[in-house]
Amino acid sequence: MAEDDSEWVIESIVGYLGSPEWVIPVTDFMENKCTVFDDEDENKLSYTEIHAQYKKLVEKLLDNYMQEVGINEQQFLDACTSPFAKSKTLQSVFQPVLATDDFQMFRSLMVQKNMELQLQALRVIKERNGALPECLTDGVDVMAELQEQEMKILQEVLKKSKEEYDEEMCRRMRSEEEVGSTSSSCSDKPVSESREAHNAMTAPSQHGNTAKVSSKPTKKEESKTAAAGSAAKSSSTSKPKPDSGSNGVESRVLPAVRAPVKSSEPSASLIPESTRQSSSSSQSTAEVWLEEAHREAGFTKPFVELTTSQQEELQQRATYLRQQRDKLHALKKEQQKSKHTTTPVESPATTTTTNTIPEISAEEKKKLQKRKHLADKLKEEVIKK
Amino acid sequence: MGEAQKGLLSVIEKLKGSTEQEVRIVLLGLDNAGKTTLLKSLASEDVNTITPTQGFNIKSVASHGMKLNVWDIGGQRKIRPFWKKYLENTDLLIYVIDSADKKRFEETGLELSELIDEENLKGVPVLIFANKQDLATASPASEIAEGLNLHTYRDREWQIQACSAVSGEGVQDGMNWICNNIVNKKK
Ligand SMILES: Nc1nc2c(ncn2[C@@H]2O[C@H](COP(=O)(O)OP(=O)(O)O)[C@@H](O)[C@H]2O)c(=O)[nH]1
Ligand SMILES: [Mg+2]
C-alpha cells in the first residue's frame, strides 16, 4: 500500500519543492543570510542562530504544505525514504529539507550560496566593464570560475536586454517620476555603457584596462545627471533619474569586490585615482561596509560581534547581490526561452582579461586560489552529492 | 502545533536514514583547557596551529561502527552563555579540564555543575578529561574528581579520565568508555 501511496506523495512533494511557494522563501532566506558564511574551518556562533531560523522556516512551509495536500508525517516519511526519492537526481532536491537537521549540510549550502553570489557579482562587473577591475583579476584564476557556457549565455542576454532596456527607459520616463524601481534596470544599463566604451576605445587609453573601469564612475559623479544621461542615451535620450539610481548601485559594486584587495593589499594602488575620488560621496561608508563584507563574506578573520550598523551594511550587500542575481536569473531564463542560437565565439571581455595580467601579491593569489579551491570542492561535495 | 512541529523534525531526522548510528557529543570546558586540541587529535589533524576558539568546531569521527559528531564550543567567558544552545539532543558530554591550572579549578567546577543541572543534559553521560597530564604540575585525576564532587552525581553515568591531548595518552581510553557507554545506552 505504501508503494501506491508514496508514488503520488513523492510526486507531490517533489513538485512542491520545485514550486515558488517553496523555492522563493527558501532561496530568499539563504541569499539574505549567506553572507556571513565563509570557508573557515571554525564556525561562527551566528551560524547557529541562522540555522535555527532556517529550521523554523522549513517546518512552517512543510506544515502548511502537508495540511494543504492532506498528507501526514508518516506518508511524508514513507515517500521520502522510498528508493525513488533516494535517486541521485532527487537527493539534491531534498537537500534543503535535510539541512534542517544537519548543520554541516546547512553550512555547506550557505557557503555555496555565498560563493555563488560573489561569483555572480564578479560576472556582472565583468560584463559591465568589459573586464574585471585589475585588482580583482587574478587573470585566469578568477575567470576560470566563471563557467564559460554561462558567460556566453549571459553575454547574449545582456546584448539583447540592452534594447529592452532602452525601451523600458522610454516607458519609464513617461510613466514615472521617482527613482524608485530602478532595480530592474541597473544591470542592463551599465552594459550599454560598457559596450559603448568598448566600441569607442579601440585602443586602450593610458590606463589600459583600468581606464575603462574608471571612466564611468568618474563621469557619473562629476555631474550625475549629465553623465548618466549621456551614458545611457545610446539609442534614446534618456532621463537621468533612473540612471542615477542605477549608478548608485553601480558605484557600490566596484569597491565592493575590490575591497578585499584594498583593505589589505598594496595593489590597491591599481585603482585609478579618479575612481576613488569620484565615488567619494559613498566612499567612507562603502569602505566600512566593504571591509565588513570582505571579512564576513570572508576569507580571513574569525567571528567578531557585529554592531547593528555593520549588520545593516552586510544586509545591504546581500540585498545588492541578490538583486543582481535575480536580474541575471530573469535574463538568463528569458534568453534560454528564446533563441539559443547566436553564441558569440569569443567575447571581447575574455580577450581583455587575458591581456591584463595584473600585479597581484602572493597573498592575494593564495586567497584566490583558496577560493577557487573552495568552489571546486563545493561543486564536488555539495552539488554532485 | 508545537507537537506537530516536533513530529516533523523527527521525521526529517529519520530521513537522513544512514545505517550508521550517529552520536552527538558536546565538548565543553573553560578556555585553554585543551578542547580544540583534543578534537583535532581525535580527527587526526594537526594540533600545532590551534588558536583560541571564537565560535565552534565540529568534527565527525568514526569509532566502533558509530559516527561521532563532536561539537567543540569556545570556552571563553563571554561565549559560555551560548553553550546552552548546543545541548539539545546531546548524547554525551565531554568536559575538559586543564589539570595544571589549579587557580581555575573552582571556576571550572562551577561551570560543570551548572551544565549538570541543564534540563537538556538530564541523564546524559559525562566524560571528564583531566587533560595536560604531561605537565609536571598537573593534579591527578582522582584529586580533581574529588574537587568536583563527582561522587555526588546521581542518575547519570560519569567517568574521569586522565589524558594528554598533546601526546594522545589516555584519549583512546576515554573514547572507549564513550563508545561502550553509548552502545549500552542506545540499545
Ligand atoms: N602541555 C599540554 N598542553 C596542552 C594540552 N592540550 C592542550 N594544550 C595546550 O593548551 C592550549 C589551549 O588549547 P586549546 O585546544 O586551544 O584549548 P581550548 O580553549 O579548550 O580549545 C594550547 O596552547 C594547547 O597547545 C596537553 O595535553 N598538554
Ligand atoms: Mg578551542
TrEMBL record, chain A:
Region listing for Disordered, in residue ranges: 169-293, 323-385
Positions with biased composition (Basic and acidic residues): 323-337, 375-385
Polar residues compositional bias, start-end: 202-213
Residues annotated as signal peptide: none
Record's subcellular location: Cell projection, Cilium; Cytoplasm
InterPro entries in the record: BART_dom, BART_sf, CFAP36
Stretches assigned to the BART domain: 6-118
Residue ranges, compositional bias (Low complexity): 225-246, 274-285, 341-358
Keywords associated with the record: Cell projection, Cilium, Coiled coil, Cytoplasm, Flagellum
Gene Ontology CC annotation, any one: axoneme
Family: Belongs to the CFAP36 family.
Protein name (database record): Cilia- and flagella-associated protein 36
Native organism: Xyrichtys novacula
Lineage: Eukaryota, Metazoa, Chordata, Craniata, Vertebrata
UniProtKB/TrEMBL annotation, chain B:
GO cellular component: centrosome; Golgi membrane
Chain residues that bind GTP: G29, L30, D31, N32, A33, G34, K35, T36, G75, N131, K132, Q133, D134
Membrane topology recorded in Swiss-Prot or TrEMBL: Peripheral membrane protein
Family label: Belongs to the small GTPase superfamily. Arf family.
Pfam family, one: Arf
Biological process, per Gene Ontology: optomotor response; protein transport; regulation of axon extension involved in axon guidance
This protein's UniProt keywords: Golgi apparatus, GTP-binding, Lipoprotein, Magnesium, Metal-binding, Myristate, Nucleotide-binding, Protein transport, Transport
NCBIfam families referenced in this protein's UniProt entry, alphabetically: small_GTP (TIGR00231)
Alphabetized SMART domains for the sequence: ARF, SAR
Alphabetical list of InterPro entries matching this protein: ARL2/3, P-loop_NTPase, Small_GTP-bd, Small_GTPase_ARF/SAR
GO molecular function: GTP binding; GTPase activity; metal ion binding
Organism field: Seriola dumerili (Greater amberjack)
Binding site for Mg(2+): T36, T53
Alphabetized Gene3D superfamilies for the sequence: P-loop containing nucleotide triphosphate hydrolases
Protein localization: Cytoplasm, Cytoskeleton, Microtubule organizing center, Centrosome; Golgi apparatus membrane
Main location: cytoplasm
Protein name: ADP-ribosylation factor-like protein 3
